[in-house]
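Quick question, first post here. What does this chain look like in 3D?
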Amino acid sequence: MELFILGCSLPVLMGAGALLMGRVRVARWFAAIGVWIGCGVASIPVIAALSGQAVKPIQMAWSMPGGSLSFGLDGLSAFFCLPILLISPLAALYGCAYLAHEKKSLGPILFFYNVLTASMLLLTASRNALLFLIVWELMAISSFFLVVFDDEHAHVREAGWTYLIATHMGTAALLVLFALLGRQANSLEFDRMAAAGLSPVMASVLFALAVIGFGSKAGFIPLHVWLPEAHPAAPSHVSALMSGVMIKTGIYGLLRILTLLGSPSAAWGWTLIVIGLVSGILGVAFALAQHDLKRLLAYHSVENIGIIALGIGAGLLGLAWKQPVLAVLGFGGGILHVLNHAVFKSLLFLGAGAVVHSTGTRDIDHLGGLFKSMRWTGVTFLVASAAISGLPPFNGFVSEFLIYVGAFRGVRAASPETVILAIGITGGLALIGGLAAACFAKAFGVVFLGEPRSSHAVGAHEVGAAMRWPMAVLAVICLGIGLLAPMAVNLVAPAVRVMAGGIAGSTAEPVTMAIQSLTAVVYVSASLLLLIVGLFLIRRRLPRAREEVATGTWDCGYARPTPRMQYTASSFAQPLTDLFRIFLGTRKHGTAPQGFFPQPTTFETHTPDAARERLFAPMFRLVDRALSPIRRMQHGRIHEYLLYIAIVLVLLLLWKAGGR
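> Answer (accepted):
Ran it through. Tokens below.
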């Protein structure tokens, strides 16, 4: 465990060195090397824990109340360390080139990036509630400063404040959660909390607080409002780390709390099933309506968090109904999707960053034809698009397949509940997958295919090696996890054992059958993919005709086709977004052409976030009006401020004296 703490310390120390260097160009590489070395050192105990070796925990006395300074690694912690240890170094390398042309000092962003990496690792190993909350806050503050790096823009500042308020609303729920749980256990140590013996009512209250507190970080609808604001505002390698890794700390926190609450209620599982379906379907529906490439990817994070919630919900129902196969496959699929999403979503954000870096715009309707000049970026983005759509033989299919199989195996119980569950999960995943495939057909087609729609796309060029290689590595991992599906399932087994407990050992045969089915599907699809690639290469090598004649293609009667005649992002997705118009609330601007010889006209659509517009904005306006009288007390006179403090202290003393 000492190596793990050392690995967390090195990025912070070298990040502080980069902060002191300020504008020195070598600072970027110094900070990135710190992340690489730190993650390499921390990976040693993580690999040991995943291989079944016991990692000795650390407990040290400290001056804070409620226990000790406790760190430990079990199968669940070690698995959640994997995406951090994988994505953080690759994104740091990418960032060295991405930030190369920035004129402002890079010291702050380098330092806070390293602090964010270290805090996420420490969070997974924290075994004391107070320590957990301190590291949680450190993670929130460091990521806030990363989001507002380009603070000269008003929309970036607004996105930063939205994120900061949302994350602290969640933290408030966590404070209440750990206060109640600590009071029941008479300690803030996790092992004491697990043995507290909670009543069913208290356990359900704590579960609800955990869903609110950790769901605001993970991005459950309607607590997701900060994601589509913060991810587009942050630098792209930061977006990759936050969307691919940081939001999973919310999932980790929820799973960790579930291990402390005792036997789950079936209502907990159904709650997560409903949250998963709503987040998955509406997340991808909102993504379809977006014009901003990074905002589109942010909504897909909401969608994939919904898929993870479906798996966890199925696992909880398996525990509540005493169905080991459902529990193991549900937890296995949900937790494995944490890693899979980290890989392909980070790749997508890095690909989007390459597009922004090359063209200077995130507006999909200003792009087009980029595959001709950015083949490396285009191929890796296509791989990630297939993976996020759940297509074999890529990694996204593996985890979703486990959830599918778990739902179908649960039907064998022949009870109405399991049939409803199977219909909900299979129907929901099928709808989510279909909409995701349509969305990325839009994203890839409009961005990379066709003709350039603006001068931004005309001048596009491929990015440098420091940005290309991290994308290539992640693309290979997307394919590798799919082709090595049995190994991926075995990798998630230690985390599943923590969640499912002793029943995990009784599911060897059905899980083996699921893996065999998964392997067959993956290798059949891989064979078809190889066949297609082989036929393409053979066709390229065949001798061509001696005489080649260039001629125009059929142009539908248009004498002068222009890029404006191509599908826009809005027109491509309109048949699908119209199905969800009640939820999306898309606003249309423009005028229809009039007469036989119409004047030039425009048409534009804009889809604001429904939760922000219809729920949180009215709520905050109401709170603002209710608290406006208090502003009279904010007049700047220090003597009256001191009087307020004295009055509060006197009231507290009287309350304390009355309690005796």
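The first helix runs from residue 2 to 21.
The first strand starts at residue 58 and ends at 60.
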